[in-house]
Specification:
Layout: H1 6-9, H2 20-23, H3 48-58, H4 60-81, E1 86-98, E2 108-124, H5 128-195, H6 200-235, H7 260-270, H8 272-293, E3 298-307, E4 321-330, H9 338-404, H10 410-444, H11 450-454
Helix pairs in contact: 3-5, 4-5, 5-6, 5-8, 5-10, 7-9, 8-9, 9-10
Length: 455
């Protein structure tokens, strides 16, 4: 249990904590922050915006990144505090008894209070404290950027899980419709066989197609339950929560994609993952200055006050007051070469952070290129799937009429039926791919916000 009252711990005398610690930070493009905890009545369909709110409030990685900001803000406070003097005091009750065995000299006993006060203040250190403060500020900026990156990554994963579940549900619905069509085809074949207008083989082929459609529907149902389980995990809600998804994916939203060059240029400048890596590199460079300054002299001011003796000394019969004031110049002479290796290690850290920055830039921009290509392809595929679905629907309608009148055989009927099933699946997949890809593209560029989801 903490010995410090909560109100005292919440006090920030050096103003090192970012304002967002208390108010929160809006997502890119948003005016307000997300209100947590998010409320949701799971008896109603789960909209994408509601899923985003739940994911942002319940994601443990986001919470951990938020806590890291607070930790680093405390480190900034410590770095700033190094410029201030320190004052310590002590008070004690001491009984000092002295005896002289075998000498005949009477002993003495002194019972008194002691008071001690110490003031220390480092006046000069050739930049060590300043570099430490700059390093702490850079690490705080890195923590802030890393928090933004974790949010963007979490949003991208959540959006993918949501649309995967939506796609699985739509696929299940399509497979159920295919089963109904296969059932009607079998019934038509049976009626024609009963009238002598079709061979037994037609009925058997229709029955086979129905069995296959039922099998595919069962597999689609299993895939749907699996996708919903992943979504429940992404939302951070209890595993037994029953999720109700909207009946369809809704109207296609957005029909344009920004230029790839603009995305790349903006990401290189402002992407939170790249910015966090840059701040860590800057902090490592300042740590080199800290390590080098330790081999330089320091100048300290000290003032001490002792009442009734110094700590560890015997008491005097009469009261004493002692005050010392002095300035000390500390000059490092030899430390077994440890500072040489410490500076080498700090410089190696800079090299490591430089390599990490290049790797983060490469990974981030490569992911952006991939998601931009996915979004471009998804938009083109969706437009093509519209035409495919329309043609397949018309083809099945024609085949059904021809088969019922005896103008087409069962193979033509089953082929058009299978073509419609494939067209439905492609249309569902393309629509979900586009809605997901356009939002993941924003997240990959570090510009994903709640407003984009609502839009």
């Amino acid at each position: 249990m903490s010995a410090w009252p909560t109100a005292v711990l919440a006090f920030d005398p050096l103003f090192t904590e970012p304002g967002m610690i208390e108010t929160g930070k809006p997502l890119p493009g948003d005016a307000d922050t997300t209100n947590c905890p998010a409320k949701k009545d799971f008896t109603t369909p789960l909209a994408l915006g509601e899923a985003v709110d739940l994911g942002l409030c319940n994601n443990p990685q986001i919470r951990g990144a938020w806590a890291k900001i607070k930790i680093q803000a405390g480190a900034v406070g410590e770095a700033h505090a190094a410029f201030f003097p320190t004052l310590a005091g002590s008070i004690g009750k001491i009984k000092d008894k002295i005896i002289y065995p075998g000498s005949g000299v009477p002993g003495s006993s002194v019972d008194s209070w002691t008071v001690n006060g110490v003031l220390n203040w480092r006046i000069l250190d050739f930049g060590g404290r300043g570099a430490g403060r700059l390093a702490a500020n850079s690490l705080l900026a890195a923590a802030l950027s890393n928090h933004d990156y974790i949010i963007q990554k979490s949003l991208a994963d959540l959006i993918q899980a949501y649309f995967d579940a939506q796609t699985a549900k739509a696929a299940l619905k399509a497979k159920a419709q295919n089963e109904e069509i296969a059932q009607r085809t079998l019934e038509v074949a049976q009626r024609r066989e009963a009238k002598g207008a079709a061979a037994r083989s037609d009925t058997l082929q229709a029955a086979t197609a129905l069995a296959k459609a039922s099998l595919e529907k069962n597999r689609a149902k299993a895939a749907f339950h699996k996708a919903v389980s992943v979504l429940v995990y992404s939302l951070g809600v209890p595993s037994h929560t029953k999720i109700v998804l909207p009946e369809d994916l809704g109207e296609i939203t957005g029909k344009e994609i920004d230029d790839m060059g603009a995305f790349m240029e903006d990401a290189q400048k402002n992407h939170p993952a790249i910015q966090a890596s840059r701040d860590q590199l800057e902090a490592a460079r300042h740590q080199v200055d800290v390590a080098q300054s330790e081999s330089l002299p320091t100048l300290d001011f000290a003032a001490n006050y002792y009442q009734n003796g110094r700590p560890g000394q015997s008491l005097t019969v009469s009261r004493t007051d002692e005050t010392t004031v002095g300035v000390t110049l500390n000059i490092p002479i030899f430390d077994g070469f440890s500072r040489i290796y410490k500076i080498r290690g700090a410089k190696a850290q800079v090299e490591q952070k430089e390599a990490e920055l290049r790797d983060v830039e490469h990974q981030t921009l490569m992911e952006l290129v991939k998601t931009h290509a996915d979004a471009t392809s998804a938009l083109e595929n969706h437009q093509a799937s519209d035409a495919l679905l329309k043609a397949a629907q018309e083809s099945l309608a024609v085949s059904q009429r021809k088969y019922e009148k005896g103008a087409a055989d069962i193979l033509e009927m089953l082929n058009t039926q299978a073509a419609l099933a494939d067209a439905r699946m492609e249309h569902i997949r393309c629509q979900a791919d586009w809605n997901s890809a356009r939002l993941r593209l924003l997240a990959s560029a570090g510009k994903m916000g709640r407003a984009a989801v609502d839009k």
